[in-house]
Amino acid sequence: MTQEHTILAGGCDCDEIRYRIVGEPLIVHCCHCRWCQRETGASFALNAMIESDRVFLSGVPDVVVTPSQSGKGQKIVRCPKCRIAVWSHYARAGDTLSFVRVGTLDEPDRLPPDVHIFTASKQPWLVLPAGVPAFEKYYSPAELWSPASLARLKALRS
pTM of the prediction? Predict the structure, then answer.
C-alpha cells in the first residue's frame, strides 16, 4: 500500500464485528515471541500497527485484558460471538495505537511483514524470508520506520 486513501476491510469469522482501516499501517510486525505464540496458538502474530482513529468499527466488540510479558497487560478486542481477536492495544502504546491482526483482513496478503521481531524464540523450522529485516528482540523505530511513519508516531505522542 502506498497511498493514504487506501482502505482495507476486515472482521471476525461470524461478521458480527467488521472494521475498516484507512491509510497505510505505520509498520507490520511479525512477532515470534512466546507470548504471541501462546495467544494465537500459532508460530507468530502478524500485526499491522495503525493509529486507532484510522480504524472504523461496525459492531460492539468485547475488550479482554490479558497478561503480557511486560507485566502491564494488553487489551484484546474480540468479537462477542465467535471470540476472534481482531486487534490489540498494548499497554506501552496505549489506546491510541491499534495492532490489527492481519489475518482478520479480507485481503491479508496485501500486508506482508515489514519486520520480524523476537526471532530468538521463533520456531526452529520456520525459515524467514530473505530481504525482510529480522531482530532477535526488538529494534529502534528510528532504524527501520519510514520518515512518514515516524512523523505520524511523533504526532500521536505530542
Answer: 0.91
